[in-house]
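Problem: given the chain below (404 residues), write out its structure.
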Amino acid sequence: MRKPKWLMLVAMLSALSLVAAACGGDDGGEDGGDAGGGGEQQDCTWVIGTMGALSGDAASLGRPIAQGVEFAVNQANEAGDVPCELEYMEEDSQGDPTQAPALAEKLAGTENLVFCACPYFSGETLATGDIFGAAGIAISGTGTNETIDEQGYPTWHRAVAPDNIQAEVAAAYIESGLQAQTTAVVHDNQDYSKGLADAVKENLGDAAEGPFIINPEETDFSSVVEQVAQVDPDVVFYGGYTPEAGPLLKQLREAGVDATFLSDDGSKDPTFGGLAGAANAEGAFVTCPCADPLKIDAAKQFVEGMRAEFGKNAPGTFAADVYDVTAMVIEGLKDYEGDVEDIAAVREYVVGIFDEANYEGVAKTYSWEESGEFVGGPEDIWIYEWSNDAENFVSVGPASDLIE
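Solution.
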């Protein structure tokens, strides 16, 4: 278990300060303005950015993540123990990988940007990883496509467990928890959706039918619904996002398909019930590489603070996870001892925070492989069930507790 760089640095500097004090050195006040180190905040600004679906169909997924980042920045500025004041910056990609590169270039070109808690979706991550890498800017987001860690992005670090782990757990839950004999696998052919659905099908083997592919640009899924109906499955697994998941479930029910509906974190948001219809949504499940902060004692203050700032429905999906990685970066920056205006050096330092981290957050413990892959396992996947009473998905518990 490696010790974080900033903790080792603090210990070294503490020892040096004792030596300096013993020697009576107290005349260095005038030229101390270039260094940080937990003293008074200097007249400087560091920017922490975020980029994702903040408007459009996927905003109900993206906005809670941005709130987690903003909350971490606000907390730090209130405490005032980071060498520079932090500025929060957001860019709205609408979750579109064709819009993301220009926004990534804008963020990377921001003079004092030291970290981006982004991107949120897999397609965006694959479209921008090289841009942030070339700029030396650490990024950490929630894109779960399992091929991202194969791209060699030097500054990327995934904040959650990848699709291969979620798919393995989803398949085990389908077989053991839901006791399904036949599962119809459906997806919308996007990077995230296809990767996850294909992995679920592979894990299910002969018990899976499909994949059946819908077009997210359309609203009539009748051809796929008919194909699924012919399979007569016990479970329908859908890889994709809420704007399609809700209508798909509604159309399945209208066609007489009464199979249990299971989707993924892309469908885990409070708009699902309205899109599917209350009667159809009740009893639908999703898997998510996100712990439920409402059921974690250590997250109590985080939950209370988020609700005070963003309302009773906070924190949303992945808000805690991205809050954690942002808070980890801020914690490390408190002990930065270099030139605060040398942004290239600060960026390099932030990358080092991830490389050396074993950080205990409110949601889970964070460390990374050399590739930037999150070190996690099945224990990091939770199951959620739609509740009309809550008008949201509520956690059933960690999948590891629900699978025989």
